[in-house]
Design brief:
The protein is 70% helix and 0% strand. By secondary structure, the chain is mainly α.
Length: 285
């Protein structure tokens, strides 16, 4: 399984986040994130063949993992509470563009070609059309809100985390379990501090487990495997498929037909992905 397939698998799992989130919208955000991350951390057990030594990483590496998994979700939830959700989500989806354009700053021997930059910009434009075109009210107006700043911060965190994991001493993918475990516990502390107590049903528990096995668990392990094997610039451009697939999933759930904007966004994203991967060079290019 090559890097692009690992990345695409993670993207497909992330695309289910919005659909599962809608079904669990009554659950406080930090409680939902904390429980899902704890469930997701259990994936590391069979992955490491129940050898907990593979979970161990140096403290700076563990701090990087918490920075990525906890920091990203913390700022994203703040953004979604203090800015229009569609526009805040769009700002957050600058992270694939950040991976492409920041790769030369974080990774030695990596250069940014005009082809990668053009593909990244085209992919972001397609993602914007897909997200805004998926609005049921058809509105496109953007109103300034301070919540856009944490949305931008969440995008920077995920892009920089993805690149910095390639700068620290190499660690087994199973160690993502320790990142998820620590981030989940911090999320539950935020829940206890910031959110009201709530009672979960059996259905909630099943959906949270699915969330942990998928977009808030399994996807992180696949993403790490992809970054360890592939070109961060190409993977960053492929990531623009996430908002497209997420929007299409929500439209399917609502039994709505994709708009012209969503279709055009799909064409632009696919074209960007092809442009970035066609005759792609190695990371040292």
């Amino acid at each position: 399984m090559n890097a692009n397939l690992f990345a695409l698998s993670a993207i497909v799992l992330w695309a289910s986040l919005a659909a599962l989130g809608v079904s669990l919208s009554h659950v406080p955000a930090f409680l939902l994130t904390g429980l899902a991350l704890l469930a997701g951390s259990l994936i590391a057990l069979p992955l490491s063949r129940f050898d907990l030594r593979q979970w161990r990483v140096p403290l700076p590496t563990l701090a990087l993992g918490i920075y990525g998994l906890f920091g990203f979700h913390f700022l994203l939830f703040i953004a979604l509470r203090h800015a229009p959700p569609v526009q805040a989500n769009l700002v957050n989806y600058l992270w694939p563009l950040g991976i492409v354009v920041m790769a030369p700053l974080f990774l030695p021997g990596v250069s940014l070609t005009a082809r990668h930059l053009l593909a990244a910009l085209m992919g972001f434009a397609g993602a914007a059309l897909a997200i805004l075109g998926g609005r049921s009210d058809g509105g496109y107006g953007v109103v300034w809100a301070w919540g856009y700043l944490p949305a931008l911060g969440s995008a920077f965190i995920w892009a920089s985390y993805s690149l910095l994991t390639q700068r620290v001493r190499r660690f087994p993918t199973a160690a993502i379990g320790s990142f998820a475990l620590a981030s989940g516990l911090l999320s539950l502390l935020c829940h206890a501090w910031l959110e009201p107590a709530t009672t979960l049903s059996m259905r909630d528990g099943v959906l949270i487990a699915l969330l942990g096995l998928g977009p808030l668990g399994g996807a992180f392990f696949l993403w790490d495997a992809a970054l360890k094997r592939g070109d961060a610039r190409q993977i960053g451009v492929l990531s623009f498929l996430t908002p497209l697939l997420s929007t299409l999933t929500l439209l399917w759930m609502r039994e709505e037909t994709p708009s012209v904007s969503v279709v055009l966004g799909a064409v632009m994203i696919i074209a960007a992905a092809v442009m970035a991967t066609f005759k792609g060079r190695s990371v040292s290019a």
